[in-house]
Every structure is written in structure tokens, then in C-alpha cells.
Specification:
- The chain has a domain at about 30-100.
- The chain has helices at about 5-25, 25-45; strands spanning about 45-55, 60-70, 80-85, 90-95, 95-100.
- It is built from two helices and five strands; from the N terminus they run ααβββββ.
- It is α+β, with helices and mostly antiparallel strands.
- The chain is elongated, with a radius of gyration of 20 Å.
- Keywords: Signal.
Amino acid sequence: MNRNIIPHLAMAALPFLITAAQASSDEAWKQLAADVDAKCRKAAVAIEKPKAAVDPFGTSHYGLALVTGKPKGAKGLIVQICVYDKQEKSVEIGSAMDAEKLGFTPTK
């Protein structure tokens, strides 16, 4: 291998390394959490005024949140699991589960 190409390869890889480092910054984590929060609350159409408890980091591929609130047109408290695809920036939300059966207690 030509030794003169090594510095060029290193320079070509530099933008990718910088992007990877920035993706792990505090600001990037805050931005991810804000996006997970907003998209998960929007997806929780079965809940009046949904609140999202966002896992601060999620997994390597997914952001995670528990969305809670009063079911529309009913009494009680429900919980839905929300999964955010970090690459696609899209969410999927699970079905409504009774919070009391899961051991959640409402806060005032």
C-alpha cells in the first residue's frame, strides 16, 4: 500500500469521526430526548394531555418512552410504550395498558 495515501484516508475519515463524537454530546442527547418526547406524545392519540417519561439514552437503535395519562372519554390512567427509531426518526406506540394493573400510582 502506498504510504502517501494514509494521510488522505485519515483526512477523509475525519468528518465521520467528528459527527460520531457530536452525536454523543450532551446537547445531542437533549435534542434526542426532546424529539422522542414530542413525537411520542403526539402518537398517543388515545390519551388526553399525554405525558412522556423518556429514557435519557434509549438503546443503540431506539429511543424509548412511557406515555401516561387519562384515556380519552374514560376515567383512570393508562400507559403506552413508545419506541422511536433513531435512524428513521419515526415512532411506534403500543396499546393502552391500565396503569393500576402495572403498579403505577397517579401523582397529584
